[in-house]
Design a protein that fits this description.
The complex is a heterodimer of chains A (355) and B (396). Chain A has 355 residues and is mainly alpha-helical. Chain A has one domain. Chain A has 14 helices and five strands. In chain A, a hairpin with a 2-residue loop joins strand 1 (154-159) and strand 2 (162-167). Chain B has helices at residues 2-25, 50-69, 86-99, 110-123, 159-172, 189-205, 224-232, 244-257, 299-312, 318-337, 345-356; strands spanning 37-43, 75-81, 103-107, 126-129, 139-141, 146-148, 152-154, 179-185, 208-215, 237-240, 262-265, 287-290, 361-363, 366-371, 377-378, 382-387, 390-393. Chain B is α/β, with parallel strands linked by helices and 396 residues long. Classes of the chains: A mainly alpha (355), B alpha/beta (396).
Chain lengths: 355, 396
């Protein structure tokens, strides 16, 4: 048999093209930013945005798996971030004495955040995903509110005698030297900031790996079949509930990891941060980037997080212009004329490379 | 499908190019005056807490303009929006740092302030917050009030301090009432923080607390039970470390019961006269401990109130007064320490830290104001009483 000579399969095979693009894009961005950071040419503003952007990207990739690939509307991605973030902050705070190494604590906290968020995802998924229709949207919406108000009413502290916990009314009295890990409406304060950009990039790469591996697997094809035609998929023996659960739990797990990284990047974190607005913002990143398109999600997230910062010179009109730009982007990317123009450019480019 | 992919790719390249360009373009921008000391600040200019940020921004701008008009040291202010969000406050901090901020007003609100405090410490930039009252802004370990950042200062009282000051004031003025009842909101940090300190300070000062009533979000509309119990306990003064919304209901319901003790509030009570649908005649005779009253008769307050009214068409609140004082305090400290605009932020930070912990400042929100090494302010709060619908300063 004649052996094909040429580029490796992941570069030539159409099937893997979007995966390769995503990885190439992230690694390229990473290299550029690392070079800029090491030469000191990256401004303080953008340095401070690196970790939160990574967090939003990971949460949005997870959400895209849920909304784009599995076709279920999730309006509570931020509350999974919240669960992950507060788990991580509490764990990191309580292990501060036992494990002094920030790297090990960060990794442990990321796993813990991801795990707890996945457990919550599974708990919600079990009753809801058995139903047909938009029930997941309603339940995740409610879940977001529940998580927020649960955390707002939780008081959790640690001192030499061990852990102290109280609910609704703050009855935690700590010995001198003790630390409140979670202080009701004030959330977590005095968190040690141990997140870093490298971990953020690694987290993005891992989430891409997980998501693409799932998409190109047998389960992934089943998930998409269940999305496109539930009855047809069921008729060929695909377990709809199982496939939907798989994507939903992975989605919430990624959000949990993203939240953990986010929580450990700031010295203070309030439960109100992860409200309905944040969930919708994540959904906007996904929709704008393209349902099922991971590279698009990454780009949309970066653009939309940076946009309000770049518009700071507009002063009071900033948020107004942000909204207008957002609407324009939505309209333009769906405009027939623009699309045809782009198509023409593409044909020309292709004609040149082929000829 | 193909078309979609192409379009996305073209867009991706364009966006990537634009973004890379923007990453560096932002460095070194801004800077109005070459020879002015750059004061940075952030606060909510948009979103639900915008009322505080706007007040602080306007007052700080006023102070900078006035100081610059006098000649001498020149200042320039950059006020960035942080939407009362820790994440945005950190990016706003980045913007300010890129601009070349040398001194800072930190943040207007507490939680964003707690987020940027460690960064000010790491970068060694002096900051004094006008209105961030949480201990987490000046202490790395707020639970024990330990490990102060050292270069973070506060212009306003911390929440616990208000409780101490209230108890001190009541102990010094027995004419207001001797049998004290307290009604506070136990699911609110502000309220319970003041209550805890008030109670312990009252014990040391020998104040007699005859009744303690609580409420929370779910039952913040009916206070007749608490009022009845306070009345039965023989209270002739009710301490209300709460915001003006529930306080207005307490005043109304006490009036309906025919119960008329002296009501005593703290700075959260500020705003009760502007509350819609509230009969302000019920607030007659209410005492409140606030660092600032817009109707004080001294020239400083009169000028400030008039100028603020001309600029914003509104009566200044204590946030504005605190911000105004912050800028003046910075100016005074810079003059005294010999700070000039060409010094690095680190040098200025060292000089101002020493200066602030040793100097005395007279401003809108207090006379003989001093700061501790850890950045906490010490000033005597002004007691005001509401008479004919306006605050009237109580002369000691």
């Amino acid at each position: 048999m004649k052996k094909k000579i040429g580029l490796p399969a992941f570069l030539t095979d159409r099937k893997y093209r979007s995966r390769t693009t995503s990885f190439a894009f992230v690694i390229f961005g990473w290299v550029i930013l690392e070079i800029m950071m090491n030469t000191g040419s990256l401004s303080s503003l953008f340095t401070s945005l690196l970790v939160p952007v990574c967090c939003y990207i990971v949460a949005a990739i997870g959400l895209n798996l849920n909304v784009g690939i599995s076709g279920e509307l999730n309006l509570g991605q931020a509350c999974f971030m919240s669960v992950g973030a507060f788990t991580a902050v509490c764990l990191s705070g309580s292990l501060a004495q036992t494990i002094p190494s920030p790297v090990i604590r960060l990794i442990l906290s990321l796993f813990a955040g991801a795990f707890v968020a996945a457990v919550f995802g599974a708990l919600i998924g079990i009753p809801v995903l058995k139903l047909e229709g938009d029930y997941l949207a309603i339940v995740t919406l409610a879940f977001g509110q529940i998580v927020k108000s649960l955390i707002t009413n939780t008081f959790f502290g640690i001192d030499d005698a061990g852990f102290h916990f109280s609910f609704v009314e703050n009855k935690v009295e700590l010995m001198p030297g003790g630390k409140m890990l979670l202080n009701g409406p004030m959330g977590a304060t005095g968190t040690e900031r141990i997140s870093n950009f490298t971990t953020g990039i690694i987290l993005i790469l891992i989430s891409l790996l997980v998501v693409f591996h799932l998409i190109y697997s047998r389960s992934g094809r089943a998930i998409m079949a269940a999305r496109d035609n539930r009855i047809a998929a069921e008729s060929v023996g695909i377990g709809i509930f199982r496939t939907k659960m798989l994507s939903f739990v992975i989605s919430s797990c990624l959000a949990g990891a993203a939240g953990a990284l986010y929580g450990l990047n700031y010295s203070t974190l309030v439960p109100a941060k992860f409200d309905f607005n944040t969930s919708i913002l994540l959904l906007v990143y996904v929709v704008l980037g393209g349902l099922g398109n991971m590279t698009g999600t990454i780009i949309a997230t970066v653009v939309l997080v940076l946009l309000p910062e770049l518009l700071r010179s507009m002063q009071d009109y900033r948020m107004l212009i942000y909204a207008i730009v957002l609407i324009l982007i939505m309209l333009l990317t769906n405009n027939e004329t623009v699309r045809t123009a782009l198509q023409r450019i593409r044909r020309k480019v292709r004609g040149k490379t082929n000829g | 499908m193909k078309n979609k992919n192409l379009m996305r790719r073209v867009a991706a390249v364009a966006v990537a190019a634009a973004m890379t360009a923007s990453l560096t373009a932002c460095g070194g921008a801004g800077g109005k005056g070459g020879n002015a000391i750059k004061i940075g600040a952030s606060g909510p200019l948009t979103g639900p807490a915008a009322v505080y940020g706007t007040a602080v921004k306007a007052a700080a701008e006023m102070a900078v303009e006035e100081i610059n008009a006098k000649g001498g040291l020149q200042f320039t202010l950059d006020f960035e929006d942080d939407t009362h969000d820790a994440e945005k406050a950190v990016t706003a901090y980045g913007v300010l740092k890129d601009w070349g901020m040398q001194v800072s007003l930190a943040t207007v609100t507490s939680s964003p302030g707690a987020a940027v405090a460690p960064m000010y410490r790491d970068d060694h930039i002096f900051a004094i917050t006008p209105s961030g009252s949480s201990l987490a802004i000046i202490y790395e370990d707020p639970d024990n009030a330990a490990n102060p950042y050292g270069n973070m200062f506060q212009m306003c009282f911390t929440d616990p301090n208000q409780g101490v000051a209230s108890a001190d004031y009541l102990a010094a003025h027995p004419a207001l009432g001797t049998q004290v009842a307290i009604i506070y909101k136990n699911d609110d940090n502000y309220s319970s923080g003041i209550y805890n300190k008030f109670k312990s300070q009252a014990a040391t000062k020998g104040l007699s607390i005859v009744y303690e009533g609580t409420f929370d979000d779910s039952n913040a509309s009916d206070f007749t039970v608490q009022l009845k119990k306070a009345q039965d306990a023989g209270a002739d003064l009710i301490f209300l470390p709460i915001y003006y919304d529930p306080a207005s209901l307490i005043l109304t319901q006490a009036n309906q019961m025919g119960y008329a003790p002296t009501f005593f509030g703290v700075d959260g009570m500020d705003g009760i006269l502007t509350l819609e649908g509230f009969d302000t005649s019920l607030a007659e005779g209410v005492y409140l401990l606030t660092p600032f009253s817009a109707d004080a008769s001294d020239d400083l307050t009169k000028n400030f109130t008039a100028n603020y009214k001309a600029k914003m068409n509104d009566i200044p609140n204590q946030f504005a007064a605190d911000a105004y004082d912050c800028v003046y305090a910075i100016a005074q400290a810079c003059e005294a320490a010999g700070v000039t605009a060409d010094m690095s932020a680190t040098d200025i930070c060292d000089k101002l830290t020493t200066q602030f912990s040793s100097m005395t400042f007279n401003g809108l929100t207090g006379q003989n104001v001093t700061w501790s090494q850890s950045g906490e302010v010490s000033k005597s709060p002004k007691a005001v009483v509401i008479q004919n619908g306006v605050y009237v300063g109580v002369e000691d």
